[in-house]
Amino acid sequence: MKQILATHSPDGREIDTRSLLRLVEDILQRATPTVVVTPQTHLELLDDGVHHIDVVGMLEAIAYTIHRISCEITCKCSGGGDAHATTMVLFNSLSSYTWDAKVVISMAAFAVSYGEFWLTAQLHTVNPLAKSVALLKQLPDILENTDALRPRFDALNNLIKAMLDVTKCIIQFKDLPSDYISPEIPDMAMALTHIPTAVYWIIRSVVACASQMISLIGLGHEYITATTEAWELSSLAHKLRNIHEHFMKQLELLYRYIGEKKHVEAFQNLVRLFETVHIDNMKILKALISSKDELPLFDGATKKRVSVEVLRRKIVILFISDLDISAEELFVLIQIYSDTQQGKNERSYEVVWLPVTDRHFPWDSSKEETFNRMASTMPWYSLHHPSLLEPAVLRYLREIWHFDKRPLMVVLDPQGKVVCPNALHMMWIWGSLAFPFTSNREEALWKNETWRLEFLVDEIDPVLLGWIQEGRHVCLYGGEDIAWIRQFTTAMRKVSQEARVPLEMVYVGKSGSKDRVKRAIATIEKEKLSGYWQDPVMVWFFWVRLESMWHSKMQQGQTVEQDEIMREVVTMLMFDGGDEGWAVLSRGSLEMVKAQGRKMMDCLAQFDSWKGNVETEGLVPAIKNALIPFKTAEHCNRLILPGDIGQIKEQVVCAECGRPMDKFVLYRCCND
Question: How many other C-beta atoms lie within 10 A of the C-beta of residue 72?
Fold first, then answer.
């Protein structure tokens, strides 16, 4: 090693070793004893990249050096000298070049003679000049004894492959970006200390290969059957394979290190971009969705790929989700999207679906099929493929926008500024009325809202809305306990009849219990217990809107203590979180009473004691007053909210007693 390092004195000249190696590799791959050209043979042409003017200029500059080294190799190997001594002669001749240049020039020098040798062998059957040269070199004998020479040719090819592999690694080390990698980094420092050793063994292998080729000229049959040289070549190949394996591990670590630094840099760039004021949204959108692709978007309307330019200076809603969006969710979103478009030639905003996938799991055909099916059903823009989302963007979505499984709709104004961190909740609550989906619009809508049955039901059931507007008595009830449902509907109907107050009862199910709710509905229908919603989407949407009211109020910083609607919403969600049923009774928009199933049943069971109040007060106030004795200090309320609410720092208090609720983590798998 001291001898080798003593010869190393680079003068600063730069050679495009990657382009030169590409040419060398092409020669070595085509120069093979297994190919003999006939007049009918069709040969592939070399990639035009090596004919580029810069590459040609570089080749002109080092052509003489390659020729000189080739002659030195031929001369020294023909004399049968010591392989190490010959290798050191080459090191001295190449002292002014960098390590990677030493290797590639040596490989090029060998490729010239090796290529000429096999070019003659391959063409001797179709070219008179090649035939005469082949006779002088006795190449026909070699081709006639191909089977006998097979072990040596195989060993030669294996060694050449190993030489190329290690040379590529050395060039990869040299080409690592200095902005991210410095020689002081331990893995890089280790590689730099091993590169001279690798260069030595490659040049030593060049000498061994050249000696083999020279020894093939004028071979006798006895020499053809020898295996000593094949063993020597195999030994060198084994040594180089070990070096290659070591280099590949170091390169993998260094590329990972570079990737992490680039990832941090890209993430910080995104953070800065969103903190900066822009004249339009292009910088933001290109950083998010089109760093690799000129046509990153798929237009759901035209079914064509388009550029990010279609979003310039428009309100853009980024719909962020995984591939597990429910059919109900997508159906309602498409409906809201279509409502805002009605009667307008041009959309006042654009939606872009950003599909987030878990990169820890391989992308397979079933995921591809799911993604394509979902994208084809969406009328808005979609990212052409989930892989277009860079790791830094995924990190931004999770860390800054708190995406975690539950879909998000982040609204950007025409300048790319975030005007609502998640508009999905206001879309569920108010639909197209929430346009332009900003936090200011959300605040204004809440200011005009009061807790009433119309708001709770909204447009989910137009018939029920009609009853409310007519001032009828309407009872909504839920839960999944069939026994309680039978008892409650029977008792409520009896109270209605005895009080002579017409009453409409509608079953609204329970969140997250699709199949159990279906079974309850089947029983209600069969036994004619009450009205119900036939469409499962209506039941799903009722509960999603309630959860969205909670999220929206929390997003606005409202609490149970200070906000009446928040208190009512939390009460409804606690009803749903319990094991019992529950009921809400209302007359028009003026009067409303609600209670958990057991308390409501206890109250209805004592109807005889308070039925006299119905005439003077009305049914709803009479039930409200009758429930007062059943309100006890003992209770156990549960508030179950889907998704990660870790970003919500405020305490959640009980709507019944006002005390902070304990927080637990619930994992649920409901295989109905």
Answer: 17
Q: Quick one: pLDDT at residue 220?
A: 47
Q: Are 254 and 262 in contact (CB under 8 A)?
A: no
DSSP3 helix / strand / coil % (the chain, rounded to 5): 60, 10, 35
Residue 613: partners with Cβ closer than 8 Å, 6 or more residues away: 621, 622, 625, 626
Distance CA 420, CA 412 (A): 7
Picking from 133, 138, 311, 111, the residue whose alpha carbon sits closest to that of residue 219 is 138
> How far is 52 from 46, CA to CA, in rounded Å?
12
Contacts of 337 (CB under 8 A, 6+ apart): 351, 379, 380
Instruction: Put residue 591 in one of left, alpha, beta given phi > 0 → left and psi -120 to 50 → alpha.
Output: beta
Q: How far apart are CA 410 and CA 423, in angstroms?
A: 6
The predicted model gives 397-422 an average pLDDT of 92
Q: What local confidence, expressed as pLDDT, does residue 634 receive? A: 54
Rounded to two decimals, what is the model's pTM?
A: 0.73
Is the separation of the CB atoms in 15 and 104 below 8 Å?
Answer: yes
Q: How many C-beta atoms lie closer than 10 Å to residue 382's C-beta? A: 24
pLDDT tens by residue, 217-232: 655 444 444 444 677 8
Contact 397/513 with Cβ under 8 angstroms?
A: no
User: DSSP string of 108-165?
Assistant: HHHHHHHHHHHHHHHHTTT-HHHHHHHHHTTHHHHHHTHHHHHHHHHHHHHHHHHHHH
Residue 82 confidence (pLDDT): 82
Say if CB 583 and CB 597 are below 8 A apart: yes
- Residue 393 is classified by DSSP as H
Phi and psi at 641, nearest 5°, equal -120, 130
> Is 507:527 a contact under the CB 8 Å cutoff?
no
Burial (0-12, 13-18, 19+ Cβ within 10 Å), 209: buried
**CA end-to-end span of the chain:** 72
CB 662 within 8 A of CB 603: no
Q: What's the pLDDT at 327?
A: 84
pLDDT digits (tens, 9 = 90+) for 496-519: 999 888 999 999 998 877 888 899
